[in-house]
Here is the input.
Amino acid sequence: QVQLQQWGAGLLKPSETLSLTCAVYGGSFSNYYWSWIRQPPGKGLEWIGEINHSGSTNYNPSLKSRVTISVDTSKNQFSLKLSSVTAADTAIYYCARTVVSVYYMDVWGKGTTVTVSS
Amino acid sequence: QSALTQPPSASGSPGQSVTISCTGASSDVAGYNFVSWYQQHPGKAPKLMIYEVSKRPSGVPDRFSGSKSGNTASLTVSGLQAEDEADYYCSSYAGSNNFYVFGTGTKVTVL
Here is the structure.
Protein backbone atom coordinates (compact mmCIF):
# COMPACT_ATOMS: atom_id res chain seq x y z
CA GLN A 1 0.00 0.00 0.00
CA VAL A 2 1.39 3.34 -1.05
CA GLN A 3 1.87 5.96 1.65
CA LEU A 4 3.01 9.55 1.36
CA GLN A 5 4.74 11.14 4.33
CA GLN A 6 5.37 14.87 4.22
CA TRP A 7 7.19 17.36 6.37
CA GLY A 8 8.57 20.89 6.44
CA ALA A 9 8.62 24.18 8.29
CA GLY A 10 5.20 25.24 9.53
CA LEU A 11 5.79 28.90 10.38
CA LEU A 12 7.37 31.39 8.02
CA LYS A 13 7.84 35.15 7.89
CA PRO A 14 6.82 37.16 4.83
CA SER A 15 9.43 37.04 2.03
CA GLU A 16 10.90 33.73 3.24
CA THR A 17 10.93 30.53 1.18
CA LEU A 18 8.53 27.69 1.96
CA SER A 19 10.17 24.26 1.79
CA LEU A 20 8.33 20.93 2.03
CA THR A 21 9.31 17.35 1.25
CA CYS A 22 7.19 14.28 0.56
CA ALA A 23 8.48 10.71 0.81
CA VAL A 24 6.84 7.86 -1.07
CA TYR A 25 6.68 4.46 0.58
CA GLY A 26 5.56 1.39 -1.38
CA GLY A 27 4.55 1.10 -5.01
CA SER A 28 6.28 2.42 -8.07
CA PHE A 29 7.90 5.84 -8.02
CA SER A 30 8.68 6.02 -11.70
CA ASN A 31 5.24 5.32 -13.19
CA TYR A 32 3.51 8.40 -11.82
CA TYR A 33 3.66 12.14 -11.54
CA TRP A 34 3.87 13.62 -8.04
CA SER A 35 1.88 16.73 -7.20
CA TRP A 36 1.60 19.48 -4.63
CA ILE A 37 -1.85 20.94 -3.84
CA ARG A 38 -2.74 23.54 -1.25
CA GLN A 39 -5.86 24.58 0.65
CA PRO A 40 -6.11 27.98 2.37
CA PRO A 41 -8.08 27.99 5.63
CA GLY A 42 -11.76 27.45 4.94
CA LYS A 43 -11.24 27.51 1.18
CA GLY A 44 -10.93 25.14 -1.75
CA LEU A 45 -8.09 23.22 -3.32
CA GLU A 46 -5.46 24.71 -5.63
CA TRP A 47 -3.03 22.66 -7.70
CA ILE A 48 0.53 23.97 -7.42
CA GLY A 49 2.50 21.70 -9.71
CA GLU A 50 3.87 18.23 -10.40
CA ILE A 51 7.04 16.34 -11.23
CA ASN A 52 7.94 12.89 -12.51
CA HIS A 53 10.89 10.65 -11.71
CA SER A 54 13.00 12.12 -14.50
CA GLY A 55 12.47 15.67 -13.25
CA SER A 56 9.93 16.83 -15.81
CA THR A 57 7.73 19.47 -14.21
CA ASN A 58 4.44 21.26 -14.80
CA TYR A 59 3.37 24.28 -12.79
CA ASN A 60 0.24 26.30 -12.14
CA PRO A 61 0.76 29.43 -14.27
CA SER A 62 -0.39 31.65 -11.39
CA LEU A 63 2.43 30.39 -9.13
CA LYS A 64 5.06 29.42 -11.69
CA SER A 65 7.37 32.37 -11.05
CA ARG A 66 7.77 31.41 -7.37
CA VAL A 67 7.59 27.60 -7.44
CA THR A 68 10.28 24.97 -7.80
CA ILE A 69 9.51 21.26 -7.51
CA SER A 70 12.41 18.84 -7.43
CA VAL A 71 12.87 15.08 -7.11
CA ASP A 72 15.36 12.75 -5.41
CA THR A 73 14.86 9.32 -6.95
CA SER A 74 17.48 7.73 -4.67
CA LYS A 75 15.15 8.40 -1.73
CA ASN A 76 11.79 8.31 -3.54
CA GLN A 77 11.18 11.86 -2.41
CA PHE A 78 10.01 15.06 -4.05
CA SER A 79 10.11 18.59 -2.72
CA LEU A 80 8.37 21.94 -3.04
CA LYS A 81 9.92 25.36 -2.71
CA LEU A 82 7.78 28.50 -2.85
CA SER A 83 9.68 31.75 -2.66
CA SER A 84 8.72 35.20 -1.39
CA VAL A 85 5.78 33.96 0.63
CA THR A 86 3.04 36.26 1.91
CA ALA A 87 0.05 35.76 4.18
CA ALA A 88 -1.89 34.62 1.11
CA ASP A 89 0.31 31.51 1.00
CA THR A 90 -0.97 30.39 4.40
CA ALA A 91 -2.56 27.00 3.74
CA ILE A 92 -2.50 23.27 4.26
CA TYR A 93 -0.13 21.84 1.68
CA TYR A 94 -0.73 18.30 0.42
CA CYS A 95 1.44 16.03 -1.65
CA ALA A 96 -0.32 13.51 -3.89
CA ARG A 97 0.31 10.80 -6.45
CA THR A 98 -0.96 11.73 -9.89
CA VAL A 99 -1.90 9.06 -12.41
CA VAL A 100 -0.26 9.68 -15.76
CA SER A 101 -2.42 10.58 -18.76
CA VAL A 102 -5.76 10.25 -16.94
CA TYR A 103 -5.17 13.21 -14.67
CA TYR A 104 -6.31 12.45 -11.16
CA MET A 105 -4.73 12.17 -7.71
CA ASP A 106 -5.31 8.78 -6.14
CA VAL A 107 -3.10 8.85 -3.04
CA TRP A 108 -2.68 11.87 -0.79
CA GLY A 109 -0.41 12.80 2.07
CA LYS A 110 -1.93 13.95 5.35
CA GLY A 111 -1.07 17.59 4.76
CA THR A 112 1.26 20.12 6.35
CA THR A 113 -0.06 23.37 7.78
CA VAL A 114 2.04 26.36 6.76
CA THR A 115 1.41 29.74 8.33
CA VAL A 116 2.99 32.96 7.08
CA SER A 117 3.02 35.68 9.71
CA SER A 118 5.31 38.46 10.77
CA GLN B 1 -7.90 29.68 -15.12
CA SER B 2 -11.00 30.09 -12.95
CA ALA B 3 -12.18 27.54 -10.44
CA LEU B 4 -15.01 25.23 -11.47
CA THR B 5 -18.37 26.29 -10.02
CA GLN B 6 -20.10 24.10 -7.46
CA PRO B 7 -23.08 24.87 -5.21
CA PRO B 8 -21.87 25.77 -1.69
CA SER B 9 -24.13 23.24 -0.04
CA ALA B 10 -26.40 20.26 -0.59
CA SER B 11 -28.35 18.10 1.79
CA GLY B 12 -30.54 15.05 2.06
CA SER B 13 -31.99 12.67 4.59
CA PRO B 14 -30.52 9.23 5.17
CA GLY B 15 -31.41 6.93 2.31
CA GLN B 16 -32.13 9.78 -0.09
CA SER B 17 -30.00 10.89 -3.03
CA VAL B 18 -28.09 14.11 -3.52
CA THR B 19 -26.54 15.39 -6.74
CA ILE B 20 -23.73 17.95 -6.88
CA SER B 21 -23.01 19.90 -10.06
CA CYS B 22 -19.63 21.11 -11.28
CA THR B 23 -19.71 23.70 -14.07
CA GLY B 24 -16.70 24.57 -16.14
CA ALA B 25 -15.88 25.62 -19.67
CA SER B 26 -14.84 24.29 -23.05
CA SER B 27 -11.22 24.47 -21.92
CA ASP B 28 -11.70 22.04 -19.06
CA VAL B 29 -14.86 20.03 -18.23
CA ALA B 30 -16.34 20.13 -21.73
CA GLY B 31 -13.03 19.54 -23.43
CA TYR B 32 -11.84 16.40 -21.67
CA ASN B 33 -13.25 13.28 -20.02
CA PHE B 34 -10.88 13.74 -17.11
CA VAL B 35 -13.20 14.90 -14.35
CA SER B 36 -12.54 13.54 -10.87
CA TRP B 37 -14.30 13.97 -7.53
CA TYR B 38 -12.81 14.08 -4.04
CA GLN B 39 -14.40 13.70 -0.61
CA GLN B 40 -12.88 15.57 2.31
CA HIS B 41 -13.89 15.10 5.92
CA PRO B 42 -12.96 17.86 8.41
CA GLY B 43 -9.27 17.86 9.21
CA LYS B 44 -8.53 15.10 6.71
CA ALA B 45 -6.89 14.87 3.33
CA PRO B 46 -9.09 14.59 0.23
CA LYS B 47 -10.02 11.09 -0.93
CA LEU B 48 -10.57 10.12 -4.56
CA MET B 49 -14.16 9.02 -5.17
CA ILE B 50 -14.60 9.21 -8.95
CA TYR B 51 -12.13 9.51 -11.84
CA GLU B 52 -12.49 9.84 -15.61
CA VAL B 53 -16.02 11.23 -15.13
CA SER B 54 -17.69 8.03 -13.94
CA LYS B 55 -15.15 5.42 -12.80
CA ARG B 56 -14.95 4.36 -9.16
CA PRO B 57 -11.69 3.35 -7.49
CA SER B 58 -11.61 0.05 -5.68
CA GLY B 59 -13.21 0.38 -2.27
CA VAL B 60 -15.53 3.28 -3.09
CA PRO B 61 -19.17 2.24 -2.62
CA ASP B 62 -21.31 2.02 -5.75
CA ARG B 63 -23.63 4.55 -4.10
CA PHE B 64 -21.29 7.13 -5.62
CA SER B 65 -21.67 7.77 -9.34
CA GLY B 66 -20.50 10.42 -11.78
CA SER B 67 -21.62 11.79 -15.11
CA LYS B 68 -21.01 14.67 -17.49
CA SER B 69 -23.00 16.63 -20.01
CA GLY B 70 -21.33 19.42 -21.93
CA ASN B 71 -19.53 21.72 -19.53
CA THR B 72 -21.22 20.36 -16.40
CA ALA B 73 -20.18 17.28 -14.45
CA SER B 74 -22.24 15.76 -11.65
CA LEU B 75 -21.67 13.55 -8.63
CA THR B 76 -24.64 11.63 -7.26
CA VAL B 77 -24.64 10.00 -3.85
CA SER B 78 -27.49 7.53 -3.54
CA GLY B 79 -28.72 6.01 -0.31
CA LEU B 80 -27.14 8.75 1.79
CA GLN B 81 -25.41 7.63 4.94
CA ALA B 82 -24.17 9.65 7.89
CA GLU B 83 -20.54 9.08 6.89
CA ASP B 84 -21.19 10.76 3.51
CA GLU B 85 -21.40 14.12 5.28
CA ALA B 86 -18.28 15.90 4.02
CA ASP B 87 -16.98 18.46 1.55
CA TYR B 88 -16.82 17.37 -2.07
CA TYR B 89 -14.56 18.85 -4.73
CA CYS B 90 -14.57 18.25 -8.46
CA SER B 91 -11.47 18.60 -10.58
CA SER B 92 -10.82 18.65 -14.30
CA TYR B 93 -7.83 18.46 -16.55
CA ALA B 94 -7.52 21.84 -18.26
CA GLY B 95 -4.94 21.29 -20.96
CA SER B 96 -1.18 21.43 -21.10
CA ASN B 97 -0.95 25.04 -19.93
CA ASN B 98 -3.16 24.94 -16.87
CA PHE B 99 -3.29 21.23 -16.15
CA TYR B 100 -5.62 20.93 -13.17
CA VAL B 101 -8.49 23.09 -11.97
CA PHE B 102 -10.56 22.32 -8.89
CA GLY B 103 -14.13 23.19 -8.04
CA THR B 104 -15.21 25.62 -5.34
CA GLY B 105 -16.41 22.78 -3.14
CA THR B 106 -19.80 21.61 -1.85
CA LYS B 107 -20.63 20.81 1.74
CA VAL B 108 -22.99 17.84 1.90
CA THR B 109 -25.11 17.60 5.02
CA VAL B 110 -27.01 14.47 6.00
CA LEU B 111 -30.12 15.68 7.77
Notes: Residues 27 and 95 of chain B are 7 Å apart (CA to CA). The interface with chain A takes residues 1, 3, 32, 34, 36, 38, 45-48, 51-52, 57, 89, 91, 93, 96-105 of chain B (CB under 8 Å). Strands of chain B lie at 9-12, 18-23, 35-40, 47-50, 64-69, 72-77, 86-93, 100-102, 106-110. DSSP finds one helix and nine strands in chain B.
